[in-house]
């Protein structure tokens, strides 16, 4: 009864709302960076898929065949390997940013019986460090991503795909 209501009161506070928004932002970082960390993939021509794809699109779609298809697949895999380190780094950062507010919400909802008056100062300091380090982290992320997209692999891949 009243114990559950007291625990739920924290979730209605402004501090808890901010922490829940932090959780959502960290999840968004994880989801967006996991797109680049997905399968190595590579080009797969529709005829190679077989079945309905081949019959439905086989005549109208002139994808890559033979050596071009193999080259497209190699370029896609090399492009994936170029993006992989920065995507993994973004996932690590997103995971670290996810843990902190989740722990704070859990400790507050469970009402852990410890009192440490300087905790708010420590929490504030951590938030300031996170806020200040976000700008250089974003610069590094975008700079690394830009270097991937201006690489010779990406340019060659782009030219190959524009030919079709």
TrEMBL record:
The lineage of its organism: Eukaryota, Metazoa, Chordata, Craniata, Vertebrata. Keywords: Membrane, Transmembrane, Transmembrane helix. The chain crosses the membrane at residues 21-43, 86-107, 119-142. It comes from Spizella passerina. This is MALD3 protein. It comes from the Eukaryota. The gene is Marveld3_1.
């Amino acid at each position: 009864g009243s114990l559950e209501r007291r625990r739920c009161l924290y979730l209605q506070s402004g501090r808890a709302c901010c922490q829940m928004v932090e959780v959502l932002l960290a999840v968004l970082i994880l989801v967006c960076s996991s797109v680049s960390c997905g399968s190595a993939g590579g080009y797969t021509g529709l005829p190679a898929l077989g079945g309905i794809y081949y019959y439905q699109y086989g005549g109208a779609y002139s994808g890559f065949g033979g050596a071009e298809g193999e080259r497209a697949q190699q370029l896609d895999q090399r492009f994936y390997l170029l993006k992989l380190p920065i995507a993994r780094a973004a996932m690590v950062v997103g995971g670290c940013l996810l843990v902190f507010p989740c722990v704070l919400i859990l400790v507050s909802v469970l009402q852990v019986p410890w009192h440490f008056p300087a905790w708010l100062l420590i929490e504030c300091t951590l938030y300031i460090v996170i806020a200040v380090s976000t700008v250089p982290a974003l610069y590094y992320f975008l700079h690394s991503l830009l270097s991937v997209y201006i690489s010779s692999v990406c340019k060659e891949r782009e030219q190959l795909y524009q030919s079709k």
